[in-house]
Amino acid sequence: MTFWPQRTLLALCAIGLCSGASANLTFSGTLNEPPPCTIDAGNTIEVDFGDVGVKRVDGVKYRQGLSYTISCGTDTLPWMLKLSVNGTATTFDGAAVQTSVPALGIRVFQNNQPFALNTPLEISLSSPPVLEVVPVKRPGATLTPARFNAVATLLAEYQ
């Protein structure tokens, strides 16, 4: 008979061997969105390497600074600001954006270190990293004269 366990529990509680307490719980909060950020007021940042010698691409020559400014709305919450360069990496260098020439990439540096593409880096809005770019070629490749271009997205966002 299935009534025995219930009767036993009732009998134990009736003689004071069961005790319990309960309390109501309430939960509340406010969902906030991080403030928006813009880089260079939303304008395209262009880097023109000019004429590049096919035998002079060595990852050092033609290195240029990438000038940019980040502006973010104000907020009192301690958001974490991240910066990334998003684009298609070359098969030979994870910090180089693939160009229209298969053996040529544009390596990105942050504070003199290779900046792996598609990898957010925690930064401070008051002192963003110094960015630089330089053409690099696939090891052992022989470049031939051609026009080249590459596209990537510089993204600053709070998380």
Automatic annotation (TrEMBL):
- Chain ranges of the Fimbrial-type adhesion domain: 26-159
- Give the range the annotation lists for the signal sequence: 1-23
Keywords recorded for this protein, A-Z? Signal
Mind telling me what this protein is named?
Fimbrial protein
* Top-rank taxon, per record: Bacteria
Q: Which SUPFAM superfamilies is this protein grouped with?
A: Bacterial adhesins
